[in-house]
Amino acid sequence: MSLVTAPALDALAESLIPTAARLVVAVHDDDQADAHDALGRLGVLDLRALCVVLAAMVPDDESLSSLLAWTRGVAPISERQAAANRARLEATMAAHARDRRVSRTALREAS
Fold it and tell me: What's 54's DSSP letter?
């Protein structure tokens, strides 16, 4: 069994942030096909890292009841709301990617 270094695990976790965000939206939109597609190509190590990324995305200062409130008696959302959710996700992910590029550039320039 080969050990994966901490920097490699950090890079793997970082690379899975878009997949984690996509999975969150798919689950909240009750989109089984998109959830299946997001998970279908991942290996065991990727799935384990994805679990850690998803856990890190959950606020730890909310009650379990509050975190799962969306699951109680709510009908699936409309196509319009799903499209709006995806547009917000895409904008957030673009900003995240842009911020990561800026941070990496600043680190290179500082060294």
Answer: H
- What is d(CA 88, CA 47) in angstroms, rounded to the nearest whole number? 25
d(Cα 104, Cα 60) in Å, to the nearest integer?
Answer: 28
Region 85-105: mean pLDDT is 77
DSSP secondary structure letters along 17-39: HHHHHHHHHHHHTT-HHHHHHHH
Give dist(CA 37, CA 90) in Å, integer.
17
CA angle at 20 for the pair 14 and 84, rounded to the nearest 5°: 120
d(CA 10, CA 100) in angstroms, rounded, equals 13
Unique residue bearing structure tokens 């695990």: 9
> Distances from the Cα of 61 to the Cαs of 4, 23, 43, 66, 90, in angstroms?
31, 22, 31, 10, 26
Could you tell me the pTM of the whole model?
Answer: 0.67
